[in-house]
Specification:
Layout (H helix, E strand, L loop, with lengths): L17 H34 L14 E8 L2 E8 L5
Antiparallel strand pairs: 1-2
């Protein structure tokens, strides 16, 4: 904000400009508001997926072609689901 107008040769120096600051604050507020709403939608979608009890891919949220691999590490048994892509 302090260099606003320098590329148009209309720079007015190192001055605090309240209207410019308020415009910036409004833009930041709107961006945060939209981001929060989108995050809320995303969380609701993920909660709906988890409540179904099905195992789904964390990336594509698909339950097809998941392959269960069991392995032992440190004397404990673990399960790992991997996406097993079907080659046509």
């Amino acid at each position: 904000m302090k260099h606003k107008g320098i590329h148009r040769n209309s720079w007015s120096g190192l001055l605090f400009k309240e209207p410019d600051f308020l415009n910036w604050c409004t833009a930041v507020y709107k961006a945060i508001e939209v981001g929060a709403k989108l995050l809320q939608i995303n969380v609701k979608q993920l909660m709906n997926l988890r409540s179904s009890g099905d195992v789904v891919c964390a990336t594509c949220h698909n339950d097809k072609y998941l392959k269960l691999e069991e392995f032992m590490f440190g004397g404990r048994n673990f399960k790992q689901y991997l996406q097993h892509l079907r080659v046509l």
